[in-house]
Design brief:
- The complex is a heterodimer of chains A (247) and B (255).
- Chain A contains 8 helices and 11 strands.
- Chain A is α+β, with helices and mostly antiparallel strands and 247 residues long.
- In chain A, the strands form 3 sheets. A 7-stranded mixed beta sheet of chain A has the order 4-3-7-6-5-10-11, with helices on both faces.
- Chain B has 7 helices and 7 strands, in the order αββββααααβααββ.
- Classes of the chains: A alpha+beta (247), B alpha+beta (255).
- The interface between A and B is large, with 52 and 46 residues.
Chain lengths: 247, 255
C-alpha cells in the first residue's frame, strides 16, 4: 500500500514545481528568443577546410585554425533576402493600431511603396502644411501607379491620437480613402520608429510637440529610398522616387 | 522526491545569483530643476527613480550578446546598428586585446542599448533624468554653479580615450552614482528630442533657446559649455550610430 502522506507530499511537490515553471516562464521572456535562435546556430570554417562539416560550438577550425563562423547567419540572410532585408523597417516588431482600430505590424504594409510622415492631430503649426504636402504628393502620382502607393501618417502623440481621433482627422482632411493609413503606436514604438526615420521630436507642452518635418519614401520591401525635408518644398524628386520604387 | 526538492532549491538559488548579476542601482530622489538646455528653460519635474551605479560594462554586454544572438556583431541588422557596432571586439563574443571586461561598453547603438535595458526590466534614462542625476558632485545634488564641478567636466573633454578606463574610476556623486562625467558619453532614451539643426526649414522651431546661454561670466559660461557639448552630441547622432566614446546605463521607475 502506498503511504497517503507520501502521496500528499508528491502533490505538494508537483504544485511547487508548477509554480517554478510559471515563474521561470515569466522571468525569461528575453531568453525565449535565445533558445529559439540558438537551436539553429551551427558553425563552419570560413575556408571550408572540411567541406560542409559543421560544429555546434564556436571553436577554431582544426585544419586552418581560423575561428569558425556561424552558418545560420548566411542561411538566415538567404531567407530574409527572399522576404525582407537588414535595412527594412519591416524588421520592427512593434504593434500599431490603424484609424479603423485594426491591429497591425509594419510588415503588414509590405508590398506597396510607402510614403510616411510623423504628425499629431492637435498640431496647429506645421502639421497642416505637412498634411498638405502629403496630399500634393498624392495628387501628382499618375493613375497607373496610384494603387501601388500607400500613405502612412504616424502620430507622435499616441496618448491623444486614438484610432477614433485619427479617423475623424482623416475624414476632416479628406484622407479617408483606402490609400491613407493613420497609425497609433505607444510612446516606445513611436520613439523607436522616429529613430529609424531620424525624425526628431519633443513634447514642449501637454498639447504641443516640435518635430522635424520629414516625409520618407520606402520601397515595397520597406527600405528607405528617399527623404524630403522641410515644409512646402519642391516635391518633384520625391514623386520621381515614389514612381521609381513602384516599378 | 528529495532530488526534485533539491533541484527546486537549486533553481531558486541560481535565480538569486542571476538577479545579482544585474548591476546595482541607487535611488535618485526626484525634484524640480531647470535644465540648462533643451526644454526652453522651463522647470522640469523628475519623479523618484533608480539608476545604475555604473555604466554597463564590456563584461555585462558580452553576457547580453551571448544570451541574445541577434545582437552579435555578425548578426545585427543594419537598421539597428551601423558598421561600427562592437567594432573593437575581436570576434562576436570576445573582446579586443586591449579591452578590459570592467571598462564601459561603447560602440553600441541606441537600439542595442534600449533593448539591453528592456531585457532587464529597465529602460534608458530620459535626457532630463540623466541631467538631473549628473548635476551633482560628491557633496551637492546641484553643483552646477561650482567652478570645480565644471572644470572637472571640461578637463575630461580634453583627456583622450577615457573609454578604456574601468568603471568606478571617476568620482562617486551625491546620489552614489559613478562615472556620469569623466568616462564616456551616455545614450539617453529621448536623445532624438534635441532639435539643433538650426535650420527652420527642417524643424518647426530651430530651438534658439538651446544656443541662448545666459549672458553671465565665470562658472556659468563654463557650465553652459559643458552641458552644450552633451546636447550637441545628442542632437547630432542617429539611433543606429555606434561610437567609441558613447556608452549607456539603465534606470528603473520607482514602483
Amino acid at each position: 500500500m502506498e503511504d497517503p502522506n507520501n502521496k500528499k507530499m508528491i502533490i505538494k511537490m508537483k504544485k511547487i514545481i508548477i509554480i517554478f515553471l510559471v515563474l521561470n516562464a515569466t522571468f525569461s521572456s528575453c531568453n525565449k528568443e535565445k533558445s529559439k535562435e540558438e537551436q539553429v546556430i551551427v558553425y563552419q570554417c570560413p575556408m571550408q577546410c572540411e567541406g560542409d562539416k559543421t560544429y555546434q560550438e564556436k571553436v577554431s577550425c582544426p585544419v586552418c585554425k581560423m575561428d569558425l563562423q556561424p552558418l545560420t547567419n548566411s542561411h538566415s540572410h538567404k531567407i530574409e533576402s527572399a522576404g525582407i532585408s537588414e535595412t527594412s523597417i519591416f524588421n520592427l516588431t512593434s504593434k500599431w493600431k490603424t484609424e479603423e482600430n485594426i491591429s497591425i505590424e509594419l510588415k503588414d504594409l509590405k508590398g506597396k511603396t510607402l510614403v510616411m510622415v510623423m504628425i499629431y492631430t492637435s498640431c496647429k503649426a506645421a502639421c497642416p502644411r505637412l498634411v498638405a504636402d502629403m496630399r500634393n504628393i498624392e495628387k501628382k502620382i499618375p493613375d497607373s501607379v496610384k494603387s501601388e502607393v500607400q500613405y502612412i501618417m504616424i502620430s507622435i502623440d499616441p496618448e491623444t491620437d486614438t484610432p477614433e481621433r485619427l479617423k475623424s482627422f482623416a475624414i476632416d482632411n479628406h484622407m479617408d480613402d483606402e490609400q491613407w493609413t493613420f497609425l497609433q503606436g505607444n510612446i516606445n514604438s513611436v520613439r523607436e520608429f522616429a529613430n529609424v526615420l531620424a525624425v526628431k521630436y519633443k513634447q514642449i507642452s501637454p498639447m504641443d510637440f516640435s518635430h522635424s518635418n520629414i516625409i520618407s519614401v520606402f520601397n515595397p520591401q520597406g527600405e528607405l529610398m528617399h527623404q524630403q525635408e522641410g515644409l512646402g518644398v519642391d516635391n518633384n524628386e520625391t514623386i520621381a522616387k515614389i514612381i521609381e520604387s513602384t516599378k | 522526491m528529495g532530488t526534485i526538492l533539491r533541484l527546486a532549491i537549486c533553481i531558486l538559488f541560481l535565480r538569486g545569483i542571476d538577479a545579482n548579476c544585474q548591476s546595482d542601482m541607487v535611488e535618485i530622489k526626484g525634484g524640480t530643476y531647470i535644465p540648462l538646455y533643451g526644454r526652453d528653460s522651463m522647470q522640469v519635474t523628475i519623479n523618484d527613480f533608480f539608476m545604475d551605479i555604473y555604466p554597463v560594462t564590456n563584461e555585462e554586454f558580452l553576457a547580453f550578446v551571448n544570451k541574445n544572438p541577434k545582437w552579435k556583431r555578425s548578426r545585427v541588422k543594419k537598421l539597428f546598428a551601423d558598421e561600427n557596432y562592437l567594432h573593437q571586439w575581436e570576434t562576436d563574443t570576445t573582446l579586443g586585446e586591449t579591452q578590459s571586461l570592467q571598462a564601459p561598453i561603447t560602440n553600441i547603438s541606441w537600439f542595442a542599448a534600449n533593448d539591453y535595458c528592456d531585457c532587464l526590466g529597465k529602460r534608458l534614462p530620459t535626457i532630463d533624468e540623466w541631467e538631473f542625476a549628473a548635476m551633482s558632485n560628491e557633496k551637492l545634488s546641484d553643483a552646477r554653479n561650482l567652478k570645480t564641478y565644471n572644470e572637472y567636466i571640461l578637463s575630461w573633454y580634453e583627456k583622450p580615450k577615457t573609454f578604456n578606463n574601468e568603471i568606478g574610476s571617476t568620482f562617486k556623486n551625491y546620489w552614489g552614482v559613478y562615472d556620469l562625467h569623466g568616462l564616456v558619453w551616455e545614450w539617453t532614451y529621448d536623445f532624438n528630442s534635441v532639435l539643433i539643426s538650426g535650420e527652420s526649414r527642417k524643424d518647426v522651431d530651430n530651438d534658439s533657446n538651446l544656443f541662448c546661454g545666459t549672458a553671465a561670466i565665470g562658472a556659468t559660461d563654463l557650465m553652459n559649455y559643458a552641458a552644450f557639448m552633451r546636447y550637441a552630441i545628442r542632437g547630432s547622432v542617429k539611433a543606429n550610430y555606434a561610437m567609441k566614446n558613447l556608452g549607456f546605463r539603465c534606470v528603473k521607475n520607482k514602483k
